[in-house]
Amino acid sequence: MDRPIPIPCAHDKVFWEAVAEDRLVVQKTSNGNWQSYPRAHALDDPMKQNAAPAFEAVAGTGTIENVSVVHRSFYPAILAPYAFAVVRLDEGVCMTCHIVDAEPSEVRIGDRVKVTFIEIAPGKKIPCFKPIEASLAT
Amino acid sequence: MDMNLLSRAAIVGAYESPRRKANDIHPFQIFHEVIAGALEHAGLTFADVDGLCVTAGDVGEGGSTEDVIEVAEYLGISPRFVDSTDVGGCSAIVQTARAAAAIACGMADTVVVAYAACPRWFPLGPTNPMSWPVGPGASEMPYGISSITAYGLYAARHMHQFGTTPEQLASVPVAIRANAALNPNALMRDPISISDVLESRMISSPFHKLDCCVVTDSGGAVVLTRRDRANDLRKKPIRMLGYGEAIGCIHTNQVADFTASPGLQSGQRAFNAAGLTPVDVDVAQFYDAFSITPLIGLEDLGFCKNGEGGAFVASGAIGAGGSIPINTDGGGLSSNHPGKRGVFVLIEALRQLWDESPGLQVKDCEVSLAHGIGGFFSAASTMLLARS
Predict the structure, then answer these.
(1) Which ipTM score applies to this complex?
(2) Which of A84, B5, B50, B365 could cross-link with B282 by S-S, CB 3.0 to 4.6 Å?
(3) Which residue of B lies nearest to A65 if distances are taken between CA atoms?
(4) What is the pLDDT of residues A109-123, one digit of tens each?
(5) For residue A21, what are the contacts with CB-CB under 8 A and spacing of at least 6?
(6) B136 in contact with A at a CB cutoff of 8 Å?
(7) Is CATH 3.40.50.300 what the domain over B3-125+214-387 is classified as, yes or no?
(8) Residue range B311-321, pLDDT digits in tens
(9) C-alpha to C-alpha distances, B153 to A29, A64, B18, B266, B313, nearest whole angstrom
(10) Among B142, B152, B254, beta carbon nearest to A6
């Protein structure tokens, strides 16, 4: 396969529908805890005694928790070098992503980033992150 | 695990295939070779075997789903106990503990734990992914994860948080290559320097090519039997003093701490069960798919403090004459790594106790440690061993 394309299913359909519209949503449990990736149950309520977790809009900003620059890609449609990163959203949960609109070798742990949406196949987008310019960061 | 379970079984034989490139050889042929080799080593035959533990369901291992049945069918045996627990690279060590428990409970008398794979030539592929881009894996697979990148994240975070340097990381493959130079079966035997590692091609930062393991076609097996039957066999029986296992996460976005691993828990469980501490260990085999893997393993198990692994591995402690020689056969970084090298980690830990290491034999070795890792620091198993 040229690259893996995400295929939505019942429990994460809302997430991928939002991504298709350039919006980032994350699940929040009835106890007020954020959780990601999406699940059909709340991690803090595994017996489903309360309402199911609901998708809520998030700021889409975060900090790079970790990054590795991939120089040898195993997928023909993912061109190296690329910055493979884990971003911790300001809400506290982590997302795997690419850091785009940046020179991969200059991406650093601790950098502030903002979500952006990249089309990887016709009609198929995935959330990625890009640097927040220092001058714009507060 | 209850010490009584471990003490009712003993490891009585082991064999590592000398093969490193096995073009056209089906992995099941190697399964047969290594099981026969381990039985011969123990002074047993296939007629004695009533338990079989394998993972063979990954591409390169030759099997499909229900893989343990397919391997048993090929071998021509009908064991009354089987286990195909698959937690990645450390599966064979995990299965060895399962085998000991099965023997203690009377489910089997003599169990073979085997592994073989031929990733260099196997005509189907690529290797199975850790997950699919549907469900949990949709959060990660679209971004092109590989084991090199996943472990690279652990190394990158260690460097960021503790100031670990590329030179310190490189001292791991350099030390292990020195052991491989002594092992006639090791794939790579020419000594290397820190600068050789740093000047090799960058694959996924911070890993250069020589921070990464070799890829081989090979296999290995160990044999366990009832403790009360072990004394009249060919080799001195090996006792399992303590064992622990733990699992963590498969997806990088779920990792709580990139500077530790489930090895922290598996190590504590093994040392507690044995009533030992790291100073009691004479020689240790650490899973070494990448330079960071033994470094974090040494920290997790308490051979040095969390964050101090870089200075520790660069100090000479892990080499010949050091306080804790590791990967004495050349490990996965230089000798043998078909995909799940936990069986070789265990075999070399055993060979040290039998005075049969093909690489750096530690003199008067009494307590030997095997520490396996699976997935992306996703599973860990630790076993402490001694001669009976």
Answers:
(1) 0.95
(2) B365
(3) B157
(4) 999 999 999 999 999
(5) none
(6) yes
(7) no
(8) 999 999 999 99
(9) 29, 11, 33, 22, 19
(10) B142
